[in-house]
Amino acid sequence: MRLEVSIKKKLVNFELQCEFTTEDEIFALLGASGCGKSMTLKCIAGIETPDRGFIRLGNTVLFDSEKKINVRPQERHIGYLFQNYALFTNMTVAENIAFTVKGTKAEKKCLADKYIERFSLNGLENSYPDKLSGGQQQRTAFARMLASNAQILLLDEPFSALDEYLKWQMELDLRKELAQYNGSALFVSHNRGEVYRLCSRIAVMNQGRIEAIKMRDSLFRSPDTLMATILSGCKNISTARRVSAHTIYAEEWQMELQTEDIVPPDLTYVGIRAHNIHAVFSTEENAFEFTVHEVIEDIFAFNVIIRRSHSDGKTLYWIVEKKTWERLCMQKKVYLTLPKESLIMVKR
Amino acid sequence: MIMDTILPLYISCKTAVLATVITFFSGIGLAYGISRLKTGQDICDAVIMLPMVLPPTVVGFFLLLLLGKRSSIGQFLLRFDISLVFTWYGAVIAAVIVSLPLMYRTARGAFDQVDINMIYAARTLGSSEWKIFWHIVFPNSRQGILAGTILAFTRALGEFGATIMFAGNIPGITQTMSTAIYAAVQANDYDLAFRWVQVIVAFSFSTIIAMNYWLKRQKK
Fold first, then answer.
1. What GO molecular function annotation could you give as one example from this UniProt entry (chain A) (predicted)?
2. Distance, in angstroms, between B122 CA and closest chain A CA?
3. Is this prediction's ipTM beyond 0.90?
4. CA distance A95 to chain B (A)
5. Which one-letter DSSP state was computed for residue A131?
């Protein structure tokens, strides 16, 4: 099912301006908290009303400000998975699933049974939501959504309220559910890992605007915008300017760097992922002497905060394997290289 | 004779029960309607809550102004030979007005507690607003609604000020337990007053105990 969205809505701090099309894929909206991604989903579902624009699902116009069309959420046939799953607390699992099913008692039961079987909820038919585990709640909400004949699924940060271990379990569950569903889904998250693992195409959102829409791999390889770079998990970013075709100057880090790709003339930032910085013994290309400022021991690695020696530049964040760090004898000064193939060049 | 002595109890109960039934539906309706208003929530809220903070005599006075024989509504009703002042219906109206804030406030608090996402979810699933109210909002706020009903009932049972202003204190017609106590004290009949006081305290006390017991059981 094809979904076209082009909406504007005035929010408290900024104006939401959102435009994208998705068809038969798992599409992600990646953005920091409060960037307007949940609001976008709510507008699509009809819970909130945009100020201007249109929303089309398949051949049906769901919203059009010019033609004054605004289909009620009840008639949009859009499945919405809420952050807290929003199960009806006064109903059992079976009642939740069959709530919107039209027909006789027997038909309702038959359909509920089908979904209970499909989502491995057997034995929980008569349990109330507060007696279910997080995963069971998610499966019930998913079953309820599908039982209502949803034509597209909107998933609103389904894991954000969970602890680490549960999160992983539920993500595996959701993978299975999405694989079974086999239709279009729109996934909203601020977590790059979830988005990378679950989605095929990703839109990066910042302050209500979509900055970039890219295939998953391309986004993580070369995020074009500053926000996309930050959201893709790049922790080291410096302002930069072009010096020559393959040379740039990173102003905040105070170092001149060689690049592999041709430097775009309108370069504004350069970034490097913390685990792409490597220790070297001799002076190599893009290698500098760094002074160690702080060492934070993590579970499998050391997180080291460094700054180029004899400069007052911005600090960098370096993730180094425990063995390597111990081999370096935990010195105060280290030689490190910023490999030119790992540099991320950002235009805006 | 026995009938005469228990008459105020009978009138009190009859008035309180009918008033509670009216308050129950109008309180829930107003609470749900106002909680969904986009503008004017505060004004509506204040108007309904006013009888709770005003002296009951003022409420009674307003009722006389609004529904009395000289008011336009009173004039209109007179055409059908209906007069509300100093009648049992007047006592019911007075009890409704003073008990409504309690019902409205508790019901609204209960509705506001219902997870809004549950309502949104029901909408995206295709349920009508009517179904959402009766199958989701109402069942999920029944404790608050029950508490509001009991409070409204006990308040209606003990109503005095507005009743005596608007419905008077006519033995056998509008004399409730609370106005009977007043009349007895006025007539220096402390024994009679004391008996009514015992009845009303016992009655209200057991109602509240029963409510608490029921609410506790619900929570388990």
1. ATP binding
2. 8
3. no
4. 11
5. G
Is there a contact between A148 and B126 if contact means CB atoms under 8 Å apart?
Answer: yes
- B2-219: CATH number: 1.10.3720.10
pLDDT tens string A326-346: 887 777 888 888 888 889 998
Chain B: give the shortest CA distance to residue A39, in Å: 13
Q: Which string of DSSP letters, residue by residue, matches A50-77?
A: -SEEEEEETTEEEEETTTTEE--GGGT-
- DSSP-based three-state secondary structure for A339: coil
Rounded Cα gap, residues A326 and A324, in angstroms? 5
Nearest to B115 among A75, A86, A99 (CB): A86
User: Does residue A235 contact residue A319 with C-beta atoms inside 8 Å?
Assistant: no
Cβ neighbours, 10 Å, residue A218: 13
pTM: 0.79
Closest Cβ opposite residue B125 in set A42, A90, A100: A100
B139 in contact with chain A, both atoms CB, cutoff 8 A: yes
Amino acid letter, residue B106:
T
Q: Roughly what angle, to the nearest 10 degrees, separates helices B2-35 and B190-219?
A: 40
> How sure is the predictor about B1, in pLDDT bands with cuts at 50, 70 and 90?
very low
The answer to whether B134 faces chain A, any CB pair under 8 Å, is: no
* Interface contact B124, partner A, CB < 8 A: yes
Give the model confidence (pLDDT) of B49-59 as tens digits.
999 899 989 99
- Residue A127 to residues A121, A133, A170, A316: CA-CA distances in angstroms? 10, 11, 20, 52
Contact B124 A90 (CB under 8 A): no
| Max Cα distance, chain B (Å) | 67
Residue pointed to by tokens 């909400």: A141
| Count of other CB atoms within 10 angstroms of residue B57 | 13
Domains along the sequence of chain A with CATH: 2-222 (3.40.50.300), 234-347 (2.40.50.100)
Which residues on chain A place their C-beta less than 8 Å from a C-beta of chain B? 42, 45-47, 72-80, 82-84, 86-91, 99-100, 141, 144-145, 148
Size of interface A-B (CB pairs under 8 A): 66
CA distance linking residue B14 with residue B7, whole number of Å: 10
- Contact criterion met (CB < 8 Å) for A82 and B126: no
Distance from CA of B129 to the nearest CA of A (A): 9
Mind listing the pLDDT tens digit for each residue in A259-284? 988 888 889 999 999 999 988 876 77
Sign of CA dihedral A156, A162, A163, A165: negative
